[in-house]
Write a sequence for this structure.
């Protein structure tokens, strides 16, 4: 049984897991059930801590959060697939052996060249011919090794292209939110760690964006329409950020835009432009032709520092948001 539970223990945990999902107002689909079962079991400390923090923040349990918990703490997607590493090791091993054989052949040729110099310079025709023949044999071996190495390098190039594509796919699954195409928290953690490791004094401003009453919108129009609308909003938000910005989906209805090496005053100007752009968004159901209600967005400006974790920063920044207020009104000093 899962977690080495007895049948009796498993049945009890399954019943508790279903009850827990009902409390969280979530359907008992496989992913949700796996997360709730793991939480009930209390064997996964990181998952338990993440859910406890979510409960303390009074945030709603939704599809986004449960998928994040499942991917990060149950699937363990932070580890690369073993077969990718094996393929990479094999490819490097073949190239290394081919290169070593080529070096050995060249070394042997030089040694034979040195040893046959006197024979080639000799007045004895037979001795000179024997020295030349030995050099020709050595040269042919080098030529063969070079051809073999070239073939191995060509094969390795093909394998590396395939591996690079597969690694990019894995990276996308690890670091990209599938619904919005924005980065996820794992990517946010990695980039923040890198930024402050390179420069502990680095200034990182952040725009915090929350969709007001998205839970009510979701309940009224359903998950499918809500996902489409949220995806369009995310695209609009990210369109105002160039390569210097780092847009992240941090919760089901929440986005952070990290702006390294940027002052909060500039971040505030960007937030105003994003707000103006989002305010112009209008949605209509293609199925019914009915216009959907306008979504209101709340904004705030925050700033990171090296002393706090990403989770602490997110939690602190959320407190800056005042629903339905404009950017200028929502900003608090940090």
């Amino acid at each position: 049984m899962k977690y080495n539970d007895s049948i009796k223990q498993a049945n009890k945990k399954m019943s508790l897991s279903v009850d827990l999902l009902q409390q969280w107002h979530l359907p008992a689909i496989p992913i949700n059930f796996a997360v709730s079962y793991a939480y009930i079991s209390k064997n996964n400390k990181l998952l338990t801590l993440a859910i406890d923090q979510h409960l303390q923040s009074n945030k709603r349990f939704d599809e986004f959060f449960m998928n994040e918990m499942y991917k990060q703490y149950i699937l363990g997607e932070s580890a690369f697939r073993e077969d990718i590493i094996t393929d990479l090791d094999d490819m490097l091993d073949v190239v290394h052996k081919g290169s070593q054989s080529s070096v050995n052949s060249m070394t042997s040729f030089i040694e034979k060249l040195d040893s046959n110099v006197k024979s080639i310079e000799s007045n004895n025709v037979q001795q000179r011919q024997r020295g030349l023949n030995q050099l020709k044999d050595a040269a042919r071996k080098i030529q063969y090794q070079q051809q073999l190495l070239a073939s191995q390098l060509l094969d390795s190039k093909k394998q590396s292209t395939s591996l690079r594509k597969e690694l990019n796919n894995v990276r996308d699954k690890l670091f990209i939110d599938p619904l919005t195409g924005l980065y996820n928290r794992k990517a946010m953690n990695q980039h923040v760690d890198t930024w402050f490791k390179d420069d502990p004094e680095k200034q990182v401003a952040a725009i915090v964006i929350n969709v007001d009453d998205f839970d009510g919108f979701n309940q009224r129009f359903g998950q499918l329409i809500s996902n489409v609308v949220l995806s369009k909003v995310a695209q609009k938000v990210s369109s105002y950020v160039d390569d210097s910005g780092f847009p992240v989906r941090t919760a089901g209805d929440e986005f952070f835009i990290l702006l390294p090496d940027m002052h909060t005053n500039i971040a505030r100007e960007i937030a105003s432009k994003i707000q103006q752009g989002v305010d112009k968004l209008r949605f209509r159901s293609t199925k019914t032709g009915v216009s959907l209600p306008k979504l209101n967005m709340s904004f705030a400006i925050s700033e990171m520092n090296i002393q706090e974790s990403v989770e602490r920063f997110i939690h602190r920044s959320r407190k800056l948001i005042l629903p339905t207020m404009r950017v200028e009104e929502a900003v608090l000093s940090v």
About this structure: DSSP finds twelve helices and four strands in the chain. The two ends are 50 Å apart (CA to CA). The longest helix spans residues 125-175. The domain at 185-330 is CATH 3.30.70.270 (Alpha-Beta Plaits).
